[in-house]
Amino acid sequence: MSSSFQDILSRSLEGHQPTYGEVLELLSVEDPYLINDLLNTAREIRFKRFGNKVFLYGFVYFSTHCRNDCGFCYYRRSNDIPRYRKPLDDIINVAEQLEDSGINLIDLTMGEDPAISSQKSYRNLLRIVSEVDEHVDLPIMVSPGTLPPEAFGQLRSAGADWFACYQETHNRDLFKKLRLDQDYDYRFNQKLWAKKEGMMIEEGIMIGVGEDVKDRADSIMIMGDLDAKQVRAMTFLPQEGTPMQGRKALDFMEEIRTIAVMRLVHQDKLIPASLDLEGIRGVKARLMAGANVITSIVPPNKTLAGVAQHELDIDNGMRSKEQIESELDGLGLRVASESDYLSFLKKCSLEA
Ligand code: SAM
Ligand code: MD0
Ligand code: SF4
After folding, report:
1. Contact between residue 117 and residue 147 where contact means Cβ atoms under 8 Å apart
2. Is 190 exposed, middle or buried (0-12, 13-18, 19+ CB in 10 A)?
């Protein structure tokens, strides 16, 4: 067992993508020494592909209203919580402030707020994207939930470089339990439509929502079929007031191992270490597993929320570039420049 495990690691290090069966093995092994070897290999692969550079993403959750009722989400329609919808000027100001702080991309995220976009009209969303694009000289990711097929060309023209929409799981039965009353194929097709219009896509899964190891392996392979340029795994954190509030969160080790396996399979893709789970103190473990983007950087005192952790480390200023830089220093890593990020995007567009 362990020698074949080591073979998988050495072949990965030579640039060979593990097979489905090998992915299952990497995700299942229990020996802590072997898991440690997996993490070391993932880190080495990141170094081979990206050197010591890490990308930083600013997160602007501009509306927390949502028409959906996802069982895992704090912002689900049925949860009686305070919500906000930021005016355009505030969104632009925050995006400008994030740009000044020296990050690489702005992620414009919303609940499926009917006042901003619906299957019938998404004018307001297009306006927000094009205004941010006009004021800020950074690539833009948009995470708006689902849109009708005809929206994607317009979203691209408005200035969206990336479209993020996480399936959470590629097990259809489990999807039904998580994303209540939502259509699996419609959500999956979002990514195909976005790609067709020239956007890069991010795919993602949640860890600890009832999936098994095979489901995780399936998702990792599907991320490749989709040609997602950024792929993520986030541990599910139970949210107050939701049907899944009583579930126990897994410890973060399964997410961290999944990040490492994703790095072996998707060697030249971006893989986030999100601040939205454990805040700044969780960055190191995720980077040590081969992640190369720090997401969910939120400026303090702007009444902006996170998603899985709606407050953690925001108003104390810990989700900031300065804090991240000091973490990176200790790991021999540094923040990528704007031109490093643009080279990555250029490489992706040449592959398209
Ligand atoms: N409303 C849009 C959507 O659902 O696609 C954009 C919001 S996006 C930030 C929501 C993502 O946050 C989900 O796809 C999920 O990956 C993550 N998320 C939400 N609730 C979570 C929770 N309780 N634990 C971990 N991740 C969560
Ligand atoms: C994050 N809270 O990066 C954000 C969010 C949406 N594109 C990203 C889940 O962790
Ligand atoms: Fe709405 Fe997105 Fe939360 Fe689902 S995950 S309830 S679509 S904000």
Report:
1. yes
2. buried
Of 138, 55, 47, 101, nearest to 335 by C-alpha is 55
Q: Which of 113, 116, 197, 127 is nearest to 163 (CA)?
A: 197
- Residues 306 and 282: beta-carbon distance below 8 Å: no
Q: Is 264 helix (H, G, I), strand (E, B) or coil?
A: helix
* Ligand 1 center to 7 CA (angstroms): 36
Q: Is the CB of 144 under 6 A from ligand 2?
A: no
Residue in 62, 75, 109 to alter for ligand 3 test, most ligand atoms within 8 A of Cβ: 75
DSSP strand pairing (293-297 vs 53-63): parallel
Q: Which residue has the tokens 């708006």?
A: 144
Residue 3 has a pLDDT of 61
Residue ranges and CATH numbers for the domains of the chain are 5-351 (3.20.20.70)
Of 62, 143, 239, 278, best ligand 2 pocket probe by most atoms within 8 Å of the beta carbon: 143
Cα-Cα-Cα-Cα torsion 139, 127, 65, 237, nearest 10 degrees, comes to -10
Burial 257-269 (b: 16+ CB within 10 A, else e): bbbbbbbbbbbbb
Give me ligand 3 centre to Cα 69, in Å.
7
pLDDT digits (tens, 9 = 90+) for 256-307: 999 999 999 999 999 999 999 999 999 999 999 999 999 999 999 999 999 9
pTM above 0.90, yes or no: yes
